[in-house]
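Entry 14. Ran structure prediction on the chain below.
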Amino acid sequence: MMKKNYLTVSELSKIVNLPVRTLHYYDQIELFKPAYVDPKTNYRYYSDSQIYQLDLIKSLKYIGTPLESIKYAQSLTLTELLDFLSEQEQIVEQKVQRMLEVQQTLLKTKEMIAEQINIPTYNEVYETTIPSQRLIALKTENLNIENIPNEYISSLTKMVEREGTIISRKYGAIYEMKDYQTIDEIYYDYLFTPLLTERYVELIHDDEQILIMSEGKYANIAFKYENDAQYFQAYKKLFDVVKEPLSPVYDVFMPMNYSSTEPTQFIVELKVKIS
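Output, structure tokens:
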């Protein structure tokens, strides 16, 4: 016989601010079952004393605890529940740190896009001041500027994603500034991409390195890449202005669009620190 102080599922739904279908689902997975089910109508009824059970469920669900873990928590003693909540606190802290990294990545990505949009001139040398940047780099050998196998880009991506860090929208290369006579003489020493977080990255191969692009004034030349002859012409312009033999040249290439239906175009920016 049903007691008079039982609540219907609709009444409970309004009290605890949960949809009826959610309460039905909780019953189905045996997370929160009604106190009484009418055998004739199959209607669910709940005791008002059950509401406190939903407080725990809603609180843990709010912080992102999986339903299976919530079901486990229901069986714990208060002492055990205290330890369980401490574990949840650590999980939440990890999520907070992750979201702070995501925020930092978004901010730095916006800064890079803004820098690209605000390039002051093309095909002419200009100066900028940049902050120190961490680069994750891959040491290369006999890698000519005219040919970058996809395996190198794949290796860079795997290096970054291995530690759960987000790859940036810039790829680049480093080579020494010299009075090259042809583009065939230019060989990359490193391929790199900027790291957008301060997270520690474990290096597991001899050819992997973390480099620092130091803070300071840089001479730059940017151009919309069309061919190698144009690239070399831009490099010679930069060399004639800077003339810093053996200084590292940072060759950064950035996409101008992400369309799946249009050809991808790139802006190349060559940077050399001014002593």
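The mean pLDDT is 88. Will compare against last week's run tomorrow.
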